[in-house]
Each structure stands twice: as C-alpha cells, then as structure tokens.
Amino acid sequence: MMTEPAPNLRCSTSAGEEEVIHLLDLWRVIWKRRKFIALLAVSVVVATIGASLFMDNIYQARAVIIPITAKDSGGGGALSALASQFGGVAGVSLPGSSSSSEIISLLNSNILREKVVDRHRLMPVLFYERWDSRKGQWKRDEGISLNPLKWLMSLVKAAGTSDPKGAGGTEEEGVPKMWDALRLLKEIVQVNSSAKDNTIVLTVENRDPELAAKLATYFLDTLTEHMSSEAKRVALINRNYLEQQLQATADPLIRQKIYNLIAQQLETAMMAEVKENFAFKVIDPPKIPDRKVKPKRALMAVLSLAAALFMGVFIAFFLEYLKRAQKRGRGENVDAGRGEGS
Q: Is the pLDDT of residue 160 over 80?
C-alpha cells in the first residue's frame, strides 16, 4: 500500500502561500490608495481640531463632604436608648444621624435646587446669553424671526396640550423658567458617593471657574440651611407632642423619661441653630479650578485620527472592490460576445 502525504503537504503549503498572497493584496490596495487615506486623515484631524477650538473650556469645582454619624453628633445613641425604654412614643419622630443616601437625595432633589436658584438669584447667571445686563432684563425677540426652528417650536407649542399657567405662571417668549434651570443644573451638577470612605463628592462644571466654585458653595450652604431648618421644625413638633403627653400622664417614671426626650429635642434644636457641622462635615471645600477638564483636544485629535484611518482603509477596499467588479463584468460581456460570434 502506498500513502500519499505529499498532496496534503502541497495543499497546506498552497494554503499558506494563498494567505500570504491575500495579505500582500490587502497591503497593495492600502499602498495604492495611500494618498487618499492620508488626505482623509489629515482633513478629519484638522476639522476636529478646528471645531474643538470653538468649544468653551469647561472647569470643574469639587467639594467632598462626610455625613455626621451618631457617634460624632453625641446624643443620638442616648436618644435611641431612651426611646426604646419609653416603648416608642407614637407621633414622635426621633432625629438621628444623617445618612449618605439622605444627603444625596437632597442634593439631587428639585426642592433644594429651586432654593439654590431663588436664594442666590441664579437665573440671569445660568442663562447669561438671554440676559441683557445693560438693560437689566431678559432679551426678547423683536420683529419677524427667520429661523425655521423657532417656527417649528411655535407650532409644537400651539398644538400642545400643556397649560403654561398650570405649570407655574404665564409663559413669556425668551424668558427661561424654573424647569429650564433645573434641567441645566442636572447637566452641570453631579453627586457621587463612596461607600468605602463614606464620603459624598459634589462636582460642578461651568465655563467660568469662579462661578463653578460659587455654585458648589451655594449648594452646600443651602443644604445646611435646609437640613437645619427641617431638624428644628421636627424638634418643635416632637416637643409639643411630648408636652401634651407630659400633661396626660401622672406616672413619675414615665414623666422623667418624657422630660429626657424633651431635653433631647431642645438640644437638637440648639444644634440645628448653630448649623455648622450639624448634618455633615466639609472635608474638602470647593476651590476655584485652575485647569479645564474638557474639551480634551489632544484626545479628540488622536481618536479622530484613528477613526479617519479606519474609514480611509474601509473606503479604499470598497473602491477596489467596485473596480474589480466592473472589470469582471466587462470580461463576462466580452466572453459572451465572443461566444455568440463564433
């Protein structure tokens, strides 16, 4: 019997040569279209750099805070012990330590952000492009607008079912509303937390570095004011309720416990009045940034170069495919014509 290893060897060798030939063909196509690929890459990179130069530099102010725990506040544990001994008085909301989730929810809440905007009169600052500082009023469109986008928006508003008065007052053309401010703050203000360190990071991005730091400070001040006023309100309600329970009971032991709870409510109200380090500590206060965070023009240029090279190679292969397809089509027609003539 005779074995035939040679054909298999020839087949594997032929397959390897075919792979090398295919790679060489691909390289020839790229080299043939090298000027087109280079021109496309340079054009895309130059356009990207040019567009990035028209983008505003964005600066980021950062503040790090940490919630006050029951151990730090001193008295939260004692109040919980008194409440457990008292059997849990119905109607008394015991003030405890502030949690990270509570502070994060408040920082992201619309009620706190509305207070920030109203308290510091930020509407002209947030929408500076629509504010006429010389006249001290909002810019309004005068005459007939030639912008088709505004026509489209007018048609949408006319066909809409929403009632501007029901949304909080009459709507004036060109005057931003509170909802516009809330949507803008959602884009430029971010709140993140670290469960490992039990810290909360508040970041504010703006084209003006000084304004970014001020906005972060405004948020912290408003958060302190809101939490302290809420604590005083709850403490007052609890104290009134406890005083009513004190008048309704004659047991000296229970009366002593109620006196202790009332004292704790008074202490909470006094601590809330101080405000500083009441609900959280500022570990790293916001500072005016000295460097922009975006746009990252160098990274944009590198990414655009990579994308342009990939696009150029793809277009080169596609053009080569079309060219060969046309040649094959002409060859088939010629062969068909020759067959008919013979």
A: no
Confidence of residue 320 (pLDDT cuts 50, 70, 90): confident
d(CA 60, CA 210): 10
Could you write out the DSSP letters of every residue in 167-197? TTS---TT---HHHHHHHHHHHEEEEEETTT
Residue keyed to tokens 């010629």: 334
* CA–CA distance, 279 with 289 (Å, rounded to integer): 27
Three-state DSSP state, 326: helix
CA 307, 312, 313, 317 torsion: positive or negative?
A: positive
The enclosing H or E element of 211 equals helix 209-248
User: Which tens digit of pLDDT belongs to each residue from 93-132?
Assistant: 444 456 788 899 999 999 999 999 999 999 999 998 888 8
Angle between helices 5-32 and 34-53 (to 10 degrees): 50
Interhelix angle 209-248/252-274, nearest 10 degrees: 160
Q: How many CB atoms lie within 10 A of CB 135?
A: 8
Q: Report which of 222, 225, 233 is spatially closest to residue 275, judged by C-alpha positions.
A: 225
Name the helix (H) or strand (E) containing 28. helix 5-32
Question: Which pLDDT does position 81 carry in this prediction?
Answer: 47
> Once rounded to an integer, what is the mean pLDDT over residues 301-313?
93
- Tell me which residue of 189, 198, 192, 187 sits closest to 216, measured CA to CA: 189
User: Going by DSSP bridges, is the β-strand pair 280-284/199-206 parallel, antiparallel, or unpaired?
Assistant: unpaired
Listing DSSP states for 82-133 in one string gives HHHHHT--TT-----PPPHHHHHHHHH-HHHHHHHHHHHT-HHHHTGGGEET
321 pLDDT band, cuts 50/70/90, is confident
